[in-house]
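Appendix C. Worked example: Enoyl-CoA delta isomerase 1, mitochondrial
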Amino acid sequence: MATLLKLFPTCTWTGRLAHLSRKGWAQSRSGRLLPCFPASQRCASTTSYLTVEMDDNTGVAVVTMKSPPVNSLSLDFLTEFSISIEKLEMDRKCRGVILTSGLPKVFSAGLDIMEMYGKGPEHCAEFWRAVQEMWLKLYGSNMITIAAVNGSSPAGGCLMAMACDYRIMADNPKYSIGLNETLLGIVAPFWFKDTMMNTIGFRATELALQLGLLHNAPNALRVGLVDELVPEKEVLSAASTAISKWLAIPDHARQITKSMMRKPTIDRLLSHRDQDINNFVSFITKDSIQKSLQVYMERLKQRKT
Ligand SMILES: CCCCCCCC/C=C\C/C=C/C(=O)SCCNC(=O)CCNC(=O)[C@H](O)C(C)(C)COP(=O)(O)OP(=O)(O)OC[C@H]1O[C@@H](n2cnc3c(N)ncnc32)[C@H](O)[C@@H]1OP(=O)(O)O
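Step 2, the predicted output written as structure tokens:
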């Protein structure tokens, strides 16, 4: 077992690991002893904010976000998230990802407002590059990506869900999803807008963005922001059922089709990436915008009292 932990320091093997005996080892061609797992092994790795559970049998990884209290997307969270998606992308066994939240009531509260409030230009630039990277990794992924939206998902949380191929939301009218940036006195960047337009069309996006609409679950389904509503307890199992349909499609055909649909939107950001960072930094560091963020945060905290 000690050797196993040395070989896979970041990996916790579940399933029948406890029963691994000497008989569970095989010798590689170079003579190294390697663990020999039964076909249905699951491997779970946990970072500070995420748990990634890979099922070698299905080729599906469940990525669970767990950054209390609300899975806000901080610089550290985004960095970890992009690294995890990159690792799965490079894992030939991984064909699909289900993205979900391990916290009650919230999928993700969107960008961490404290990363944009009272911070200098250098920090803001680094943060924005990490936001771009998260979206580029997810929207441009070759894997099948399913968002199991088991709670509210405003702004950056909605972007994350929209970047996936398919969205299943908990049928709870208390949960909402949408790009509500204007309510904070800020503006959804062009690639947030493009992602939404690609999902629900021009007119619905125009209304949603200007009004900062947060759709409750039934409205989100009606407008096409999510693809299915299911009872809250069934979100993850519905995501597994949905992904099995996608897995039945040959990867190369699905991937080329996905790229054909998404590449122009991705290329638009890639060719304006630095300019987008500069725009963000000069916008977010304006006194008037900082004041809007401060007022919004105060209101958020006052809701409790
Ligand atoms: C000319 C063009 C230039 C272009 C420039 C582009 C600029 C674009 C800039 C940015 C784009 C921004 C994208 C974003 O994602 S901004 C974030 C928007 N998010 C929200 O509005 C969500 C706010 N949160 C909520 O609505 C709720 O918290 C909730 C529904 C998610 C959960 O509700 P509940 O369970 O009741 O929890 P609380 O409200 O009590 O929150 C707990 C705790 O967490 C704090 N918090 C909540 N959300 C955030 C957040 N996004 N960032 C940081 N902190 C957050 C909240 O304040 C509470 O804190 P506490 O009082 O200290 O406990």
